[in-house]
């Protein structure tokens, strides 16, 4: 199924229903379809067609949904860009994807490389007048035909999105996701639009994340009203839940804790919430227990997945969050709350040894998955693709074990990703920046537990200049990396532990320095 059909079906079934609420504007499904048609026609006039890359860098807004569907209508490929990226990070991602058109929020214009690699006539401003030689979004729509003139030829196996994810090196990787990557999940897990069923979703997760894009597509396919937050703010989130009587929301653990810890938490009506989905980072047991108490009548779902799997591959369902029953039953459910649940029906999941064989019993191994939802590879990065796709399986890099009832429990990450507040951080990327400081001879970056953020970034440094300070290195990284990637703590050592092959033994560092960062 081609994803353009999600909107076509919903706009035919519930044309007058509000599809998107953003910044006070209400856009019906019929109007959303027309805006997508206009944008696709305008993009076609600019030469965009099959296989061309259409990138967008902006906080959450209705434009991003329109850009995705317009690109799909033209058989083009949508490339969402992390709006928190620094100039060098953006240059790398643009260099990999080589977009034929870039939609941009005004605040990010200064980050675009000035080397001519992206001509000004390939830039469309989303919230500002056109740059000299470029275009303005509203002008493109105003001057375009409102009818659908383009019907996609590519099938479900064609790439529809290149989504960047942190990797084991400092270079971001662009996961190629097909139409089927999204359609398979939605057709299995979401009911299509129904004139008699109305529901409102509050979108908080950024749409450069697969969870954010998947949530937007699910809302369109399901004929749901999507209330879009540009960026998360705890009090604003509570206000929107109350104002729009939101039925569903997705939060990363950090967001959920911020909401519950807010001094005005009890001043907002949250009784409309039927489902809260959480994921993208480890959920501390005290936080999920607090959430169960603070949102009575709300069902919770723990969704585990990654960009390369087009979102969720395992789920801990609402029943496992219902802490009632005998003392023994409650104890079992509390233990399961620390798991990521069981595999979904539309994907195969297995835990394997380093040789790729299934583990025995509850032995720890790497989670691998396969099915039509998996990415087809990393755009232009064949070596990285071969390291991840092996024998028809996608190797997630997450270590885990499975109990006798089929519940999967994470045990670490084979590739040492750090997950902070739902953001994926590559330690090597931070280490590369630290190596640029003249006072650093060697470094290793690890993730340490944190109740608010899931994990925090800690750097273990061998100094070449004894005068270098912790704050100096934190500030050095802050100026060169997206804010969430910088270390929150730096410890100094005489040397890093290494094996006979010279590889840093990060497990030893986590054992010695794995305490939470103090003072945050």
What can you see in these coordinates?
The protein is an alpha/beta fold. Helices cover 29% and strands 26% of the residues. It contains 15 helices and 27 strands. The strands form six sheets. Strands 2-1-11-10-12-13-14-15-16 form a nine-stranded mixed β-sheet, sandwiched between helices. Strands 4-3-5-6-7 form a five-stranded parallel β-sheet. The model has no long low-confidence stretch (mean pLDDT 92).
Describe the structure concisely.
The protein has 520 residues and is of the alpha/beta class. It has three domains: 4-231, ANL, N-terminal domain (Rossmann fold, 3-Layer(aba) Sandwich), CATH 3.40.50; 347-413, Roll (Luciferase, domain 3); 418-513, GMP Synthetase, Chain A, domain 3.
């Amino acid at each position: 199924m081609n994803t353009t059909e999600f909107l076509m079906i919903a706009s035919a079934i519930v044309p007058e229903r509000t599809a998107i609420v953003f910044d006070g504007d209400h856009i019906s499904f019929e109007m959303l379809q027309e805006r997508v048609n206009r944008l696709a026609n305008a993009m076609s006039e600019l030469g965009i067609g099959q296989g061309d890359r259409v990138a967008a860098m902006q906080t959450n807004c209705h434009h991003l949904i329109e850009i995705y569907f317009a690109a799909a209508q033209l058989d083009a490929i949508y490339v969402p860009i992390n709006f928190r990226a620094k100039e060098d990070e953006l240059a790398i991602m643009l260099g990999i994807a080589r977009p034929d058109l870039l939609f941009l929020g005004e605040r990010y214009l200064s980050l675009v490389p000035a080397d001519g690699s992206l001509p000004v006539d390939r830039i469309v401003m989303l919230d500002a007048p056109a740059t000299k030689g470029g275009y303005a979004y509203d002008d493109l729509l105003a001057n375009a035909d409102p009818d659908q003139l383009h019907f996609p030829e590519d099938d479900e196996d064609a790439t529809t999105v290149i989504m960047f994810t942190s990797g084991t090196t400092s270079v971001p990787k662009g996961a190629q996701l097909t139409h089927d990557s999204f359609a398979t999940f939605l057709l299995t897990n979401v009911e299509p639009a129904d004139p008699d069923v109305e529901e409102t979703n509050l979108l908080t997760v950024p749409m450069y994340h697969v969870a954010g894009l998947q949530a937007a597509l699910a809302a369109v396919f399901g004929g749901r009203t999507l209330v879009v937050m540009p960026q998360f703010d705890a009090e604003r989130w509570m206000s929107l839940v109350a104002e729009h009587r939101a039925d569903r929301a997705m939060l990363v653990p950090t967001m959920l804790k911020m909401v519950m810890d807010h001094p005005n938490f009890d001043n907002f009506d949250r009784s409309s919430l039927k489902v809260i989905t959480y994921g993208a980072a480890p959920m501390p047991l005290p936080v999920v227990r607090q959430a169960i108490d603070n949102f009575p009548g709300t069902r919770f779902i723990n969704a585990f997945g990654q960009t390369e799997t087009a979102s969720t591959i395992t789920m801990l369902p609402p029943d496992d969050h219902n802490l009632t029953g005998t003392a023994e039953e409650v104890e079992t459910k509390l233990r399961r709350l620390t798991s990521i649940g069981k595999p979904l029906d539309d994907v195969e999941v297995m835990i394997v040894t380093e040789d790729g064989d299934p583990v025995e019993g509850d032995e720890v191994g790497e989670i691998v998955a396969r099915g039509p939802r998996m990415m087809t590879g990393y755009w232009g990065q064949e070596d990285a693709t071969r390291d991840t796709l092996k024998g028809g399986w996608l190797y997630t890099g997450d270590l885990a074990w499975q109990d006798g009832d089929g519940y999967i429990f994470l045990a670490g990450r084979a590739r040492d990703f750090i997950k902070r507040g739902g953001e994926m951080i590559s330690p090597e990327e931070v280490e590369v920046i630290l190596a640029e400081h003249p006072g650093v001879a060697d470094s290793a970056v690890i993730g340490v537990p944190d109740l608010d953020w899931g994990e925090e970034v800690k750097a273990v440094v061998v100094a070449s200049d004894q005068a270098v300070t912790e704050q100096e290195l934190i500030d050095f990284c802050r100026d060169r990396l997206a804010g969430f990637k910088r270390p929150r703590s730096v410890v100094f050592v005489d040397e890093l532990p290494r094996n006979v092959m010279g590889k840093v033994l990060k497990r030893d560092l986590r054992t010695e320095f794995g305490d939470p960062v103090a003072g945050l």
